[in-house]
Amino acid sequence: MNRVLREPVGPGQESVWDYPRPPLVRPTDRTVEVVLGGEVVCRTTSALQVLETSHPPTWYLPRADFVPGALEPAAGASFCEWKGAARYLDVRGGGRTAAKAAWYYPNPSAGFGELRDHVALYAGPMDACLVDGRPVVPQPGGFYGGWITPEVTGPFKGIAGSLGW
User: Fold this and answer.
1) Domain residue limits, the chain
2) Which CATH number applies to 19-153?
3) Residue 163 binned pLDDT confidence (cut-offs 50, 70, 90)
């Protein structure tokens, strides 16, 4: 593994390289909005962040805070060594469907029980994912679901050359 050169950390920022492995679940009361098809499909101040070394936080939003009909079961599943078996969801809003753009853990592994009844989603397929009114940037690479906000510095897993991190 190559040594990673951390980006500088400014006031009010945190480095993803200080996040733990195994990951940590952190509650936040920041305002999160998800827009798809021009409609707000979720608004919450009760999100959870999963913090893991080299990754921008993955935001888990309470399922109850999505508008009715915004989440539909989708085919497929995956497995996380930390959180357990995940299921996928399509996200619907404003006449649009973002296929397999969200996931959840119906029975999270020990240590991650807080994620039950919460949904994470990829920011890229949405019109916007906003934290305190500011748009997030999707984690690079398309595989991971972290959201980059101005408060976090990298470099982030998913960029070219990060496979061995």
Assistant:
1) 19-153
2) 2.170.150.40
3) confident
3-state secondary structure the chain: CCCCCCCCCCCCCEEHHHCCCCCEEEEECCCEEEEECCEEEEEECCEEEEECCCCCCEEEEEHHHECCCCEEEEEEEEEECCCEEEEEEEEEECCEEEEEEEEECCCCCCCCHHHCCEEEECCCCCCEEEECCEECEECCCCCCCCEECCCEECCCCCCCCCCCC
pLDDT tens for residues 30-85? 999 999 999 999 999 999 999 999 999 999 999 999 999 999 999 999 999 999 99
How many whole angstroms separate alpha carbon 5 and alpha carbon 78?
31
The residue type of 110 is A
